[in-house]
Design goal:
The complex is a heterodimer of chains A (about 160) and B (about 240). By secondary structure, chain A is mainly α. Chain A is built from eight helices and no strands. Mean pLDDT of chain A is about 90; it is low at about 155-160. With about 240 residues, chain B is an alpha+beta fold. In chain B, strands 1, 2, 3, 4, 5, 6, 7, 8, 9, 10, 11 and 12 form a twelve-stranded mixed beta sheet that branches. In chain B, strands 13-15 form a two-stranded antiparallel ribbon. Chain B has a two-stranded antiparallel ribbon with strand order 14-16. In chain B, β11 (about 165-170) and β12 (about 170-175) form a beta hairpin. The longest helix of chain B has 22 residues, at about 35-55. In chain B, about 20% of the residues are buried. Residues about 30-35 of chain B have low confidence and may be disordered. Classes of the chains: A mainly alpha (about 160), B alpha+beta (about 240). At the A-B interface, α1, α2, α4, α5 and α8 of A face α1, α2 and β1 of B.
Chain lengths: ~160, ~240
């Protein structure tokens, strides 16, 4: 089934998912964003019949090349999606990313400092000028919100944080 | 690594933004400028650009599979039903929002700045406070306060009050019937009318049953219609 997208719609709907797909290969956010931008620019000058397929293929190939150039000899990460699952996986990842982005600022900060940067509740409390209890509450509420997402529920993953 | 851990591991604000990328990549134009003019234009452009970027920055809220509640920048509470979204430009006008789906708003009081909601085929301007707007099919229910409801922003529309609902029919707003009786005993009908109009109504034959809808009619007309339909006499007690 052919679907006609405007360039703007392609950006709005697929830019973030494609960045996250690339991230599964590169483990480098700056590199992935560059790769995806290059692919969009190429797509805009080549105007392929099926832009979505073109973009997914291009991003996959360029991300793989980047990894081979920049992390030679390292085995590929295990959670790289198979081609037929790329669209659904990347959209799910994008929704998760957006959900974290949409969290109230302090909850998001606490969550990210704890899970991404590995800070202790005490360190987070000091850094943000709030109590440890508040940190604990914020993280609990943030995880509660994220756990409720169908993306998280469907994968039956229980998060023991 | 499960997907949530993966995302959390790399998460950063302000990146992977499709809208920003679109503006950056899809709006390219080639121009030739004299060097000094280029420098002057560039600084001015940068200033204006940063200012408009800030002013045009968009805030979005989504509800996926479950109801989500958010507090908007102006203090308004929004409950998004599953599959709904809201977007606004808080630094441009925090009292104007776009929405799709079904959202219940509890609007923060600010008589100086009316709160407006635009959906695909419906528009509401709030004269204060709690209402639910659904955009497919377009329908609004007012719980408190008064709301001006129309199909578009520039149409006059109608004003709805507490307890009223309206839909969009043939491109214009239409109040839903206030009273719907389905085989209701006359006693209930009279109680309902009494309660709404603040009068006491009495009838000898309260056992008769009525099925009818009354849309925005005056009490006298409703009484006449009921009397005719059931062949009874209704008394208004002073």
């Amino acid at each position: 089934m052919a679907q006609r997208y405007s360039i703007e719609e392609l950006f709005t709907s697929y830019y973030r998912p494609l960045c996250l797909l690339s991230l599964h290969y590169t483990y480098d956010t700056a590199a992935s964003e560059d790769i995806v931008q290059e692919c969009f620019v190429a797509m805009m000058s080549k105007t392929p019949k099926n832009p979505k397929t073109y973009l997914y293929t291009a991003v996959r190939n360029r991300s793989l090349s980047w990894r081979q150039r920049n992390k030679p000899g390292e085995p590929l990460p295990e959670d790289i999606p198979a081609p037929e699952d790329e669209e659904s996986t990347s959209i799910r990842d994008a929704r998760l990313w957006t959900a974290i982005e949409s969290l109230p600022p302090q909850r998001r900060r606490c969550l990210v400092l704890a899970k991404r940067d590995g800070l202790s509740y005490k360190e987070i409390a000091e850094k943000l000028g709030i109590s440890e209890n508040t940190v604990r509450n914020n993280i609990a509420k943030a995880l509660e919100t994220l756990r409720e997402l169908p993306e998280v529920k469907k994968s039956f993953i229980l998060l023991f944080f | 690594m499960d997907s949530l851990s993966f995302i959390l591991n790399f998460f950063r604000e302000g990146i992977f933004d499709g809208r920003k990328a679109y503006l950056k990549l899809a709006g390219k134009r080639r121009t030739v400028l004299v060097p000094w003019l280029l420098a002057a234009a560039a600084s001015l452009a940068l200033g204006v650009f940063l200012f408009t970027e800030y002013r045009n920055s968009i805030k979005e809220y989504y509800a996926y599979d479950i109801r989500q509640e958010f507090t908007l920048p102006d203090g308004t509470q929004a409950v998004l039903f599953p599959g709904s979204s809201i977007s606004l430009k808080p630094h441009w006008n925090p009292r104007t929002v776009n929405m799709s789906g079904t959202v219940r708003f509890t609007v923060a009081k600010d008589p100086a700045h009316p709160f407006t909601v635009t959906a695909k085929n419906a528009f509401a301007e709030v004269l204060g406070t709690v209402f639910t707007l659904c955009d497919n099919p377009p329908e609004i229910t007012v719980e408190e306060g008064r709301v001006r409801f129309a199909a578009q922003a520039d149409a006059e529309g109608i004003v709805l009050e507490k307890g009223e609902s309206a839909i969009i029919k043939d491109g214009a707003p239409e109040k839903k019937p206030l009273f719907v009786f389905e085989d209701s005993p006359l006693r209930e009908v009279l109680e309902s009318l009494s309660g709404h109009f603040g009068v006491r109504l009495r009838c000898a034959e309260e056992g008769k049953r009525l099925s009818a809808e009354f849309k925005d009619e005056r009490l006298e007309d409703i009484i006449l219609l009921v009397e005719e339909a059931l062949d009874v006499k209704i008394e208004v007690v002073k």
